[in-house]
Design a protein that fits this description.
Blueprint (H helix, E strand, L loop, with lengths): L2 E13 L3 E8 L3 E7 L18 E9 L2 E11 L8 H19 L4 H16 L5 H15 L19 E3 L4 E2 L11 E3 L2 H12 L12 H19 L4 H10 L2
Antiparallel strand pairs: 1-2, 1-4, 2-3, 4-5, 6-7, 6-8
Bound molecules: zinc ion (ZN).
Length: 246
């Protein structure tokens, strides 16, 4: 029996002579692995729509224990990602994070929508890479159940604290002791951006303005928060960072 899904190809592995196994993040079926037969040969008609980071409509059926793609129609290719090494590296990092989160069976629908919007912001809108990265990291934390507390410092009650405790997932003034964990500085611009990202609708997530210095802080907070909460590193993130060294 044939099945049809719309999904984003997050990972590809070469298989046998000319096949690939694709990890696909779908709205309705979560993360699935599909076999694309013969896709590495130049003449394959599946080739375009089965590329890494393509969003495609895939028709497949069970063939000898492998769910095998019969037809593939590309819905969005995100070509802008493939023309810039840093964007491609960031896309790989987002894909790695999305795979980690979806394995834990969180809401795929929201996750798929977030990563598609992040790819679009990088690829078509050309939004600053560090901004897209920070938004993605913080929103993934929300989806995974790690929504931070951004209202007031839990120690003194200030509504404009100048620090964020990445271990506790809460704002906390740098001078207020009483809670353990790693604290990073946040200026008012960074705090506003953190609140914006947590409260905004998905469509407007990537459209805010921020100063360079606040973006630098935001970037450090969101990345450290994600890595701390997920309790793991990401090889694709390490690779992205090697590209930034002048
Ligand atoms: Zn305080």
């Amino acid at each position: 029996m044939y099945q049809k899904v719309e999904g984003l190809i997050l990972r590809e592995v070469n298989y046998q002579d000319s096949d690939k196994l694709l990890d696909v993040l779908t709205k309705d079926r979560g993360l699935i692995t599909l076999r694309a037969r013969g896709v590495r040969s130049r003449s394959s008609r599946l080739r375009g729509a089965c590329q890494l980071f393509c969003y495609s409509e895939l028709t497949y059926f069970d063939r000898q224990g492998h769910e095998t793609i019969q037809e593939a129609v590309s819905l969005e290719q995100f070509t802008g990602l493939r023309q810039d090494m840093e964007k491609l590296a960031l896309a790989s990092y987002f894909a790695q994070v999305a795979q980690t989160v979806s394995q834990a069976d969180f809401f795929t629908d929201e996750l798929l929508s977030l990563i598609l919007n992040a790819f679009y912001a990088l690829s078509a809108l050309n939004r600053p890479k560090e901004l897209v990265k920070a938004v993605f990291e913080l929103r993934v934390c929300l989806i995974a159940g790690f929504a931070p507390q951004l209202d007031v410092c839990p120690v003194c009650g200030s509504s404009q604290p100048d620090g964020f405790n990445v271990s506790q997932g809460s704002v906390q003034c740098l001078n207020c002791s009483g809670l353990e964990g790693i604290r990073l500085p946040v200026c008012q611009g960074t705090l506003s951006a953190l609140r914006y990202i947590c409260n905004q609708t998905p469509k407007k997530l990537f459209s805010f303005q921020i100063s360079d210095s606040a973006l630098c802080e935001l970037s450090a907070v969101c990345e450290t928060y994600l890595v701390t909460q997920m309790e793991r590193g990401f090889s694709a993130l390490d690779f992205y960072k090697t590209l930034l060294i002048p």
